[in-house]
Amino acid sequence: IFQLRFSSVLFASQKAEVAGSQSLSLMMKPSSVKPAKEVAQVYSNLAAYPVPQSAQLLPQYPFSDAIRTRCVYQVQDLASQKNRTLVKTAVVLPTGDLVDSDPVLRDPTTLWDVYCSGGDHRAVLLKLKAEGSGSDNADKFVVHVYNESRFIKSIDLSEKAKHGAVYGPELGACQWSCNEGHLLYVAEKKQPKNASYFAADAFSEESAGKPGEAKSVGKQYDSVEHFGEQLSEYKRPVLCTLDVDSEVVTVLDDGIPTACCQRNLAGLLTTLAYGECAVIGHDTRAVSSPRFSPCQTQLVWLQNEPSGPHKQCRRLIWCDWATKDIRFIIDFVNQAGSAGFPGIYADSLPSRCWSSNCRTVVLSSINRSKDCLLAIDVKTKIGELLPLPPDASSAKVLDFHRDWLVVEASAPNVPPFIAAGFIDASKPLTSNIKWTCLTDCFKLNDIAWRVKQHTAKLAHPEFGNQLFESILVWPVGSSKKKDSKKGDEEKPAAITELPLPLIAFPHGGPNTSFTATYMRYVCGLARCGYAVLVINYRGSLGFGKSTVDSLLGGIGERDVSDCIQAVEETLAESASSADNSALPRLDGEKLAAFGGSHGGFLGGHLIGQRPGMFKAAVLRNPVINLATMVGGSDIPDWVYEQSGLPFSHDRLLDAETLALLWSKSPLSHASKVNTPTLVAVGLKDLRVPPQQGRELYRALRARNVPTRLLVCPDDCHPMSSVPVQSSVFVDIVLWFNRHVMGVTEEA
C-alpha cells in the first residue's frame, strides 16, 4: 500500500512538474547556472562572429558604377588558439544588389596593403620573420608592387640598410604619394651595431660587420626609451620614402618628432620633392590626423589641450592651405545637458574623410553612450548626425571616398558588421543614406538592452549635479532561434521571469566610454544568466568637456558614488516596475563587481567601501595602489593628473603626496573587504604593473578572504590573446556561479 501511494504521489508530482515545467525551470536557481562545458560553448558560439578590422573602397571597374570594397575582419580560432584574419571583396551593383567573394585567409606576414588614390597601383609590405636568434638575424621587410592586373616587382627594404624595422599600424603609416611614384612609411632609425668591450674588433676603426657599418662599443645594455604599453618595440621613428621606379630609399629627416596626443605636438607637412617640413597648427597644442581635401586646397585636423585627461574633448580645425587662414570649425563643448551636442570625442579622423565637393567632413564621435556618425559642413560649421544602418545603435567610419561611406556597425545584441551607403550632398544628410550590408548581420534574440540616464547625487563643487549613463544588458526568452540573420522573421521576446543576478561593470580609462556596441564578454555573461550594468560614470567621454574634467582629483570618490548610484537606481526601477515588460526582474541580494584597469580600480573600491554589498568580484589588471603604481607605470602622469596633482618629470614623491595617493587607492580599504575576489594580471603589462593585482591578492589572502590569482605570462594590459580571453571568461563565470549563485562546478 505504501509503495502504491508513494508511486501515485510521485506520478502526481511528475505531472505537475511537466505542466508547470516552464515556470519551474525559471524559478529553480541551479537550472539557470551553466557548468564549465556549457560556459565554454557559450564563448565558442560568440567567438565565431567575425570582428571587422578595416574596410577600403577600391577603384571602380572601368565603365561601371559598381562599388568595390575590400573588407578585412578577424575571427578567433579556438582550436589553434589564434586569431585568423580574413579578407573578402564586396561589390555593390547600381541596382543595390550585393555580390561578394568568398573570404580568404590573409597572409599573416602582411604588414600593410595599400592602394594609391587613383587605383592604378597597390603595395603590399610583408614582414618576414628571421630564422634563428641573435642580433644579426633581424626580420626582413619586402614590398610587393602590383598594377591593376599583375604583379610588377618585389623590393627588399632590408637590403637597402637605410633604417631598421618598418612600423605597423599600431604607430606607423604607409601611404602612396599623389603622383603614385613613392611610398611613404615609418621605420625605426638605423642604429650603430652594438659590440662588447671584449669583441675582437671592439677598439679597431673598422667593424667586423658589414663594410661601412657604424658600431657602438659597450652600450648593448643601455636602456632606450620606447613608446610604452603595446608599443615597446618602437623607439626612434623616422619617416622614409621608397621611389618605386628607382627602388631608392630615403630617410627624410632624423629630427622629425613623434609623440602621443596628450603632449605639445604640432603637425608637420613634408614635401617629398624638397624634403622640407611645414608646421601645422601651434606647438603648444596637441595636434593629430591632418587630412587634405581631394582638391588639395583645404586641411583639417583634430586638436586638444596637452596634459590633463588622457582622452578628452577635441576641436576640429580648418585651414585654407593657400592663405594659411586657420579657423575653429567645431570648438570644445563644456556642458551638453540631456540631449545637446556634447562635442567631438575621436582618437583620429578617418584617412579619407572628405566629400567629393570638398565641403563636408565625416567622422566618428562618441555621443553619450553611443558611437555616432558626424557630418560637418566646413563652410557653415554645422554638424549633423547621420542615420545608422538598420539594427545598429552605434557605428564607426572605416572609409569615405567618392561620397560612399563604409562603416562598422553593431548594437549590444548585434555583432559587428560592415555596411556601405551613398551620401548625396544635394539632399539633406540625415535622410538620404540607403545602407547595404557588406557582411552578414546577425541579431542575438535572447539578449535585450536599454540605456538609462542618471543625475549624479554627489555634486561637483564647480560643475554641480552632472549627467551620466548606464547600459543594462540582460538575457530574455525568445520564441525563435537565438541568432538570426537580418531579414529573418522576428517575434517579440519574453522577459525572463527569474530574478537575475546583476553584475556592475564600470569601464577602464577612466576617460573613455562603454558605448552601445557589441561586447563579447557582456553577451557571454548574459547568456550565462546574468544581467550586466555597464556604467559610464563621470569622467566618461561623450557628455561634455566639463564631465571629463570633473573626475580629475575625484577618483575613488565621484566615480565610485556614480557606480553605486547606477546600481541602486537600476534595482529600484526594476522593483517598482515588476509588471513592466520592458525591464527584467533583478535580485538585489545577488550583486557582483567586474572591471579592468580603472574599472578594476573601481571594483576594488566598491568591495572596500561597501563591504557585503557585492557577493563576488573579478578584477583584471586593476589599479590597486596609486602610491606604488606611479613609479612602475609607463604613464606616471596619469596617476598625478587623475589624483588632481600637477605633473612634471622632475617631480619627486614626498610624504604628503604619498598620503594623498594612498587615500585614493582601493588598497586603503582592503581591511574591510569580505567579498570573494578573482584577480587576473598580465605579466607583460607596462600600463598597470602586475604587482598591483598581486598587492590586493596578498592582502585578501592574509585576511582569509576567498581569492584567486590568474597570472598570464605572455599578455599585456588588454589581456586580449585568444588563449587568455577564452579561458579567463570561463573562470569568471564559474567564480560568479560559485560566489553569487552559490553553485559549485559539481552542481
Automatic annotation (TrEMBL):
Q: Which residues form the Peptidase S9 prolyl oligopeptidase catalytic domain?
A: 525-740
Q: Which SUPFAM superfamilies match?
A: alpha/beta-Hydrolases, DPP6 N-terminal domain-like
- GO cellular component, as recorded: cytoplasm
What's one Pfam family the UniProt record gives for this protein?
A: APEH_N
Which intervals hold domain Acylamino-acid-releasing enzyme N-terminal?
141-253, 285-437
Keywords of the record, alphabetical order, are:
Cytoplasm, Hydrolase, Protease, Serine protease
- Single Gene Ontology BP term? proteolysis
User: Where is this chain's protein located in or outside the cell?
Assistant: Cytoplasm
Q: What class of enzyme is it?
A: hydrolase
Q: Where this protein primarily resides, as one coarse class?
A: cytoplasm
GO MF terms here are: omega peptidase activity; serine-type endopeptidase activity
Q: Which reaction does it catalyse?
A: Cleavage of an N-acetyl or N-formyl amino acid from the N-terminus of a polypeptide
EC number of this enzyme: 3.4.21.-
Q: In the UniProt record, does the keyword Transmembrane occur?
A: no
Q: How does it assemble?
A: Homotetramer.
The family assignment reads: Belongs to the peptidase S9C family. Belongs to the peptidase S9A family.
Name recorded for this polypeptide: Prolyl endopeptidase
